[in-house]
UniProtKB/TrEMBL annotation:
Membrane-spanning segments: 20-40, 52-73, 103-123, 150-170, 182-201, 226-244
Pfam families, per the entry: MIP
Protein name: Aquaporin Z
Subcellular location: Membrane
Annotated InterPro entries: Aquaporin-like, Aquaporin_transptr, MIP, MIP_CS
Keyword terms: Membrane, Transmembrane, Transmembrane helix, Transport
UniProt xrefs under PROSITE patterns: MIP
Organism of origin: Microbacterium murale
Lineage, broadest ranks: Bacteria, Bacillati, Actinomycetota, Actinomycetes, Micrococcales
KW Ion transport (keyword) present: no
Membrane topology: Multi-pass membrane protein
Family classification: Belongs to the MIP/aquaporin (TC 1.A.8) family.
Amino acid sequence: MSESLAEAAPPTPSVGSKLTAEALGTFLLVFGGVGTALFASNHFTDPGSGSAVYVAVAFAFGLTVVVGVYAFGPISGGHFNPAVSLGLAAAGRLPWREVPGYIIAQVVGGLIASTALVLIGLFGPEGWLTTAQDAGFASNGWDEFSPGGFGMWAAIIIEVILTAIFLFVILGTTHKLRPTPFAGLAIGFTLALIHLISIPVDNTSVNPARSIAAAVYGGVGPLSQLWVFLVFPIVGALIAGFTYKTLLDGTKKS
């Protein structure tokens, strides 16, 4: 009986498979989300059209997560975000020893995606790439780099809050004892909602890999502000992870 059950159990993905899946998923997220921000904004140039760009970008990020979760989630868990990996580790859902590999794969996948966007831009209309980079290459930022002119503390606060919310949704919908049907859709729609809220504030990070990928090509200004979008999404994710494990998980026997 035990032998037949062992034969029926699906094989555990290898470390290499997991890291490849994370790199590909993060590539998809950056290529789809940042790519939409760069290419769509080139066409919505009339006054008052900014809201159309925000909606397009928000749903692009949400859709990339939905697609990525269903495509690569069965292999790696579908994190595509260093903050998510750290938050899941804090909640006891991912061994801490696996976190560095996940983060490296995510950052590499994001950088390959933004590099691909630059290569496409090289063959775009005259001046397109220079204009996109002068505008920050869809990077995150505050003050003059904030779409709505919000300051640093606004960016810090919203990144902590929204990343924590994102982790609470992920942890709740993927709970091993009470999983939510179509969890990938809930997670993707949550990310779209997060972008609708915070694009005007700081162009929405909640994902250090996404922030690194854009800032590398965004110039000195976005790079100088990158630390906020590395530190505070992780702070929000860790708060959510430890809080969920302590107060909401409900898997420990009393």
